[in-house]
Design brief:
Blueprint: H1 2-6, E1 17-24, E2 27-34, H2 37-43, E3 59-61, E4 66-67, H3 70-77, H4 82-92, E5 94-96, H5 99-120, E6 121-122, H6 132-164, H7 174-180, H8 187-195, H9 207-221, E7 227-228, E8 230-238, H10 252-255, H11 267-274, E9 277-284, E10 287-294, H12 299-309, E11 314-323
Antiparallel strand pairs: 1-2, 1-5, 3-4, 6-7, 8-10, 8-11, 9-10
Helix pairs in contact: 5-6, 5-9
């Protein structure tokens, strides 16, 4: 009771609160919501605003109980009604979470990312999956490497001007300089690694998108030997079009193979050129069917080829998105 008397009348103390903040003009406005209800509101699960807001007020600082003066609201939002201002903050503002909640969210996303990556990558020699622990250690290695490279680059950038301005520095002979220079990796490899730097999990992206980034980084840098688990497909095509000649470039699988499909020029040969390993193939009636394993990167090219060249007389069915072998 005494606390209420000693507090200014426009101050309200709230606990167990989730904040939503929106900067408008030069002011930052906040609303106090129940935990976990903001995302439910934005996704359409929760439709009752009373279940979302702890109190229907706009604050300058919820933790201090400072409500926003009417003059500040008018200056920032114009003639909008108070309820509409609250809705704009709720729908467009940034959700603020506590340190404990943030750590729990980060840990949950991290575990989900590792689980996805562990199910999609295999050892290229054994085709067996790695344990989540090994995947996590490999990603930690990449993250540490990325942070160390950033720190080194910053230090180099800071010291390079001074070194360049040192008039007493002698210029080495051309031959010695060439020998001293480290030989950089090929441009294509450099570009790939720049694009797939892994710095760790964040809470602002979905686990699925971050898992894809993690897989690209692991494949680019190979802290442990990894490759994408192959897809298992069933391809069906009418025998009427199998021997038709095809113009255009061959798929990479056909060009890099052992010679079996190097002379690919028919629809059948081109389809087999996409298949890394044939499990079975047969002719049933007027249809040819092949089941085999395809690298995920070749799936789109195969699907497009069948769609364009067979004129509706061929189809691709995914039997397994990621074929792995487990101990």
């Amino acid at each position: 009771m005494s606390r209420q008397i000693n507090q200014p009348s426009n101050q309200i103390k709230l606990t167990n609160v989730s904040l939503v903040r929106l900067k408008k003009g030069k002011k930052r406005f906040e609303i106090a919501c129940y935990k976990n209800k903001v995302l439910e509101w934005r996704s359409g699960i929760e439709k009752d605003l009373d279940n979302v807001l702890q109190i229907p007020n706009v604050f300058l600082n919820v933790s201090k109980g400072q409500t926003a003066p009417h003059a500040d609201l008018v200056k920032a939002f114009g003639k909008m009604k108070p309820d509409d201002i609250i809705l704009e903050i709720l729908n467009k503002g940034d959700i603020q979470v506590g340190e404990g909640e943030r750590k729990a969210q980060l840990e949950r996303i991290n575990n989900e990312v590792i689980s996805i990556v562990a199910s999609k990558l295999v050892n290229p020699q054994t085709k067996r999956v790695y344990t989540p622990g090994m995947i996590e250690k490999a990603l930690d290695m990449l993250s540490s490497q990325a942070h160390n490279q950033t720190t080194t680059a910053e230090k180099t950038a800071a010291t390079t001007p001074a070194a360049n301005n040192n008039s007493g520095t002698s210029t080495p002979a051309t031959g010695d300089a060439e020998e001293a220079k480290p030989h950089p990796p090929p441009p294509q490899q450099q570009q790939q690694k720049r694009e797939h730097v892994w710095t760790g999990v964040v809470t602002t992206k979905s686990a699925k998108s971050q898992a894809l980034e993690a897989m690209k980084a692991l494949i680019a840098y190979q802290p442990i030997p990894v490759t994408r688990a192959r897809m298992k497909l069933r391809i069906t095509c009418s025998t009427n079009v199998l021997k038709q000649a095809v113009k255009g470039p061959k798929p990479a699988a056909a060009e890099d193979g052992d010679g079996e499909h190097k002379a690919a020029g028919t629809v059948k040969d081109r389809i087999l050129g996409y298949v890394e390993q044939v499990e079975s193939q047969d002719v049933v009636g007027s249809e040819w069917e092949v089941t085999g394993f395809v690298e995920p990167g070749a799936f789109k090219g195969l699907s497009d080829f069948i769609g364009n060249e067979t004129k509706g007389q061929g189809r691709v069915e995914v039997l397994d998105m990621a074929v792995t072998h487990e101990d």
